[in-house]
Amino acid sequence: MPNVSPTLNVMISAARKAGRSLVRDFGEVEHLQVSIKGPANFVSAADHKAEEIIFRELSKARPGYGFLMEERGEVAGADKTHRWIVDPLDGTTNFLHSNPMFAISIGLEREGQMIAGVIYNPASDELFTAEKGKGAYMNDRRLRVAARKSLADALVTTGIPHRGRSNHQRFLKEMGTLMQEVAGIRRSGSAALDLAFVAAGRFDAYWEHDLKPWDLAAGIVMVREAGGSVSDLNGGDKFLENGDILAANLTLHKAFGAMLFNKP
Fold first, then answer.
1. Do residues 136 and 18 both lie within one domain?
2. Would you give the end-to-end CA distance of the chain in angstroms?
3. C-beta separation of 132 from 143 below 8 A
4. pLDDT at 11 over 60
5. What are 200-255's pLDDT values in tens digits?
6. Number of structural domains the chain divides into
7. What is the strand order of the sheet 73-75 is part of?
8. Looking at the domain assignment, is residue 1 inside a domain?
9. What is the pTM of this model?
10. What is the rounded CA–CA span in Å between residue 116 and residue 210?
């Protein structure tokens, strides 16, 4: 990762420190599966602990910056131009079931624009980083979105609305359209990793509805710095506000938008 800024180093350090805490707790989850109560309360505590570590580390390094965090919510800072957007454990259900597909996501917003992102899966020790204008990396390898141009060759990822979530019929309609056109559809259980994997070329496209800003913030800059295109499902850039996202290379982004959402 050449030319890493001091700010990105701060983000990486916070993610790694929280990651060590999550890995220790992840090692305990499997032992809790057999208990009648189950590990849900334990996982919630792990989530809060990781967020506290990140909050403490980032506050110490950049005391004026504000926060938007999954557990803590909005925390105003003296510096109104910068805001950390943090998900301390994206993929909670995976974590709960001893599935190692989860991540810490830290994004930095400056004057309403995402300028840096870190997505870290401590179970695999894969660290995805990006800074605006400096490219995207996994550990020390430069990332580029996949070059595939055809829907028929595309491996696509999404999130599936589960019990308690709305719009099941909308999802089934979109899936019915897509499954006839693409090479495969996957569901990882972590929006942050889905975006990181698009940046890495592991997935060709990702779409989902009804997400939160902390699910998306770091991944947006990741995909863009890897040469991809990110928009909301109207073709605009209101994804942090409306929670809808489509990410792919430039060609497939246009094709998916036209097919799923009738957007040119």
1. yes
2. 36
3. no
4. yes
5. 999 999 999 999 999 999 999 999 999 999 999 888 999 999 999 999 999 999 99
6. 2
7. 73-75, 65-69, 79-90, 103-110, 113-121, 126-131, 135-138, 141-142
8. no
9. 0.95
10. 23
The percentage of the chain sitting over the pLDDT mark of 90, rounded to a whole number, equals 82
Alpha-carbon distances of 19 from 56, 60, 88, 151, 257, rounded to whole Å: 14, 18, 9, 36, 35
pLDDT per position as a tens digit, 116-158: 999 999 999 999 999 999 999 999 899 999 999 999 999 999 9
Please indicate, yes or no, if residue 65 is contained in any of the structural domains: yes
Conformational region of residue 167, where left means phi above 0, alpha means psi within -120 to 50, and beta covers everything else: left
144 — phi, psi (to 5°)? -135, 140
